[in-house]
């Protein structure tokens, strides 16, 4: 599982966003985002969590990083602009969407498809597909149509499909939202396993307990801005940002334009 | 009413006699129309798929044009192909006029817009759902096209059947470019037209009933194929 000899060689990280902004329906939904995600070889954290109220811009930020959405302002820079072509960069990343879209095929065909896109020969694919299905607890559902799986199984299949290509960078958009505790636990395990094998994870989560449990560092977003970025322990013990503090206290409600008590607060990090 | 009963008995007589002329005409009909549809599918499905998954200037215009071309009158297509293939036309040297090949060419032109438009419409919906995921998986445009065509393959049977219906039922184009030459280019529809013009209404109607039966069989086959293979994988 760990061999990467079939993957396009060379790292793509670090990923930097510089002055990134995005407009939707005439509104700025992502504003002045500057941040960097280091590669693992620099001993950088493996898991960055993005938290913030609903509508803060977490999903859009992940999509911008992944290259699915082109920002209207600023730049997305790979490997300090030394990265090879965009296609190579794309091929080293994978994403699990908040609502995964599975192909109208069997569970195993969904994974096989991802591998075939990476030019992995048919003879090698089936062993890897079966291994991934076992690993994600979907072994006996290999031939089941993906659309007939339960939501939790679909989420795991989407994760298996993303892990299949052994990405250097994996985006997860609230992967455990609306999963039962057992499924959520399984997903968390799989993420940890991938990280231990060297994958860099950027994950949005609305689950603060999960974030505290798993995150190496935390990005707190509010209304399209990064308000704070800190090592997880620091973020939870002593958030520097007022909004982040209110968010942790549960006072920052998603429908409020401002927090109930604090002001807008200064962006940190 | 009498004519209709006569037509029915004519149809049965022809079928049970295993009339050699009838079989020859029927098989040419199927040969021409099935070939035309096969070629139209090879052209129209990738084209319709590309229109569905690519965004380019003039795309909307192209969609409207192909939709409009679905209603192209067969006689007009027949005339156009006739002018191209006639001795003095640009492709006259090939001597294709009044051959089954000419009839196939005319029917391809009639069927392609149907395949393009119905494929485009079917894939539009699927693409809305798949595009971001395929993009995330780093599928190339060609790989994406193959993926959506494959996953929509059973819905696309409807497009093929619609094309086949148009091809096998049209008379205007095959009459002009084929010439309705006995045992060379005579097909079901031109034979019906001929018998009708001779006043052999019962025979014409009998042939019509046989054509209808063939059409129903083809559709049942297509429908059965869809039913047989459609499961949750394709929902
Ligand atoms: N296509 C769109 N059109 C208009 N507004 C959008 C669109 N996509 C996202 N938004 C808005 O951008 C904001 C951020 O969205 P999102 O990134 O999905 O938030 P989060 O994932 O943090 O809940 C929301 O207010 C949302 O309504
Ligand atoms: Mg979201």
Structure description:
The complex is a heterodimer of chains A (269) and B (235). Chain A has a single domain, classed as P-loop containing nucleotide triphosphate hydrolases (Rossmann fold, 3-Layer(aba) Sandwich). Chain A is built from 9 helices and 9 strands. Chain A has helices at 58-66, 86-91, 107-117, 122-135, 151-164, 181-196, 208-214, 232-237, 242-249, and strands spanning 15-24, 27-37, 47-51, 73-78, 93-96, 169-173, 200-204, 217-222, 225-231. Helix content of chain B is 77%, strand content 0%. Chain B has helices at residues 2-17, 20-53, 59-69, 74-85, 100-136, 141-151, 156-169, 172-178, 188-197, 201-229. The termini of chain B are far apart. The A-B interface holds A 66, 68, 87, 90-91, 93-95, 97, 100-101, 103-106, 113-114, 117, 145-148, 161, 165 and B 129-130, 132-133, 135-139, 143, 147, 151, 231-235. The complex binds adenosine-5'-diphosphate and magnesium ion.
What structural category characterises the helix and strand content of chain B? mainly alpha
Query: Biggest interface, which chains?
Result: A-B, 24 and 17 residues
**β-strand number of chain A:** 9
- Specify the CATH class of chain B: Mainly Alpha
Task: Indicate the CATH topology of chain B.
Answer: MetI-like fold
Which percent bin holds the helix content of chain A?
Answer: 25-40%
- In percent terms, what proportion of residues of chain A is strand? 15-25%
Features:
heterodimer, A: 269 residues, alpha/beta, Rossmann fold, six-stranded mixed β-sheet, three-stranded antiparallel β-sheet, 9 helices, 34% helix, disordered N terminus, disordered C terminus, B: 235 residues, mainly alpha, MetI-like fold, 10 helices, 0% strand, binds adenosine-5'-diphosphate, binds magnesium ion
